[in-house]
Amino acid sequence: MKDRVSDFKLSTSDFAKLWLLEPDVTFLNHGSFGACPIPVLEAQQRFRQQLEQQPLRFYREFEALLDATKNQLSEFVGADASDLVFVPNATTGINAVLRSLSFRPGDELLTTSQEYNACRNVLNFVAQKTGAKVVVAEVPFPINTPEQVIEAVIECVSPQTRLVLLDHITSQTGLIFPIRELVKELRDRGIDTLVDGAHALGMVSLNLREIGATFYTGNCHKWLCAPKGAAFLYVRRDRQSLIRPTTISHGANSPRTDKSRFQLEFDWMGTDDPSAYLCVAEAIKFMGSLLPGGWSELRARNRSLVLQARELLCEVLGVAPSCPEEMIGSMAVVCLPDDCTEFGKTRAIPPIQDMLWEKFKIEVPVIYWPEYPQQLLRISAQIYNKMEDYEYLAEVLTNLLK
């Protein structure tokens, strides 16, 4: 490695001081677990303090606090508050839906080759228990147009298709699927859709009424920047009586009639720390206050930055972009050249990812895709990032691969 790399000076974003992220780390992996800003963490600590100071009073007031937060979230995602419930993460939401529905031998559960592994595992589990069959639509990658996603999915639809599980934004490849068009095509065929929107909230503008999915679940801890342990599940009203939480508790036989069984069961599943849920409204407000144009400007800024970074990395690595710009939000992947195979394959995490972290303190995921030896490098862009972060990554990779 040349001295000019070790001497490369990083610029720290003016916004970085609002996060607890270590200043000597080049953090380009917001997409994996998010990062919660300090003011939102402080709000969470205030809720936790109230809980411990007087637990009974806190839980007496909890439902009103939860409803207020749910109202704020419903406005942000374009849905009625009565159609939303909180869950700890999107995978829990996927479990709640798939494990509530009834399937029979011969039923087909359709998904794509780019579905997130944890959620694909839920689909496999349900199919094994019920005798249903998992059908996988092969979505090409690299990809030229969003229409290729629609074609791949629709080609796999049959009279036996009962449910389609779709990513809104894929985890491994960072693609924004044409989810509204997909849902419409499937709805026109009488097929229910379950959308895994783990990355969508805060990355793209959401309007669940317009999307029209039967079920939709998304994380609040990623691009919305709420604390870990906050996500939501949307269920269309005519399907709510079918969906039960993974934990059955007091709501199952509550005599209350002022709320739906759907709300009563999900809102209280037992004693827990609900502070992450209660901070969702604070995260919406705080992140929306960082730029004059609010959330629209924030999303546009992050997208512009990741597109610039992708262009730079493709240029220095001598590779072509793997998808059109219209399929990119705040994450993008770059196909690493064949030279990267010289680092070998020793375990699930490619050695080059470990090297970038251990030698250069660059936190960025490298993914075997679709399998070894092909590797993808996935970059994220959040407001605390600057172009200098990606220039440093490009400089390191250029020298590593010489």
Please render the helix and strand layout as text.
Elements: H1 3-6, E1 26-27, H2 30-33, H3 38-53, H4 55-77, E2 84-87, H5 90-98, E3 108-112, H6 117-130, E4 133-137, H7 147-155, E5 161-167, H8 179-187, E6 192-196, H9 208-211, E7 215-219, E8 231-235, H10 261-267, H11 275-278, H12 280-288, H13 294-317, E9 331-335, H14 351-360, E10 362-363, E11 366-368, E12 375-380, H15 387-400
Parallel strand pairs: 1-10, 3-4, 3-5, 5-6, 6-7
Antiparallel strand pairs: 2-8, 7-8, 9-12, 11-12
How does this structure look, described?
The structure is a single chain. The protein starts with a helix and ends with a helix. The strands form three sheets. It has a seven-stranded mixed beta sheet with strand order 2-8-7-6-5-3-4, sandwiched between helices. It has a three-stranded antiparallel beta sheet with strand order 9-12-11, with helices on one face. The radius of gyration is 22 Å and the shape is globular. The protein has helices at 3-6, 30-33, 38-53, 55-77, 90-98, 117-130, 147-155, 179-187, 208-211, 261-267, 275-278, 280-288, 294-317, 351-360, 387-400, and strands at residues 26-27, 84-87, 108-112, 133-137, 161-167, 192-196, 215-219, 231-235, 331-335, 362-363, 366-368, 375-380. 40% of the residues lie in helices and 13% in strands. It has 402 residues and is α/β, with parallel strands linked by helices. α3 runs antiparallel to α4 (55-77). It has two domains: 3-19 and 292-400, Aspartate Aminotransferase, domain 1 (Alpha-Beta Complex); 41-287, Aspartate Aminotransferase, domain 2, CATH 3.40.640.
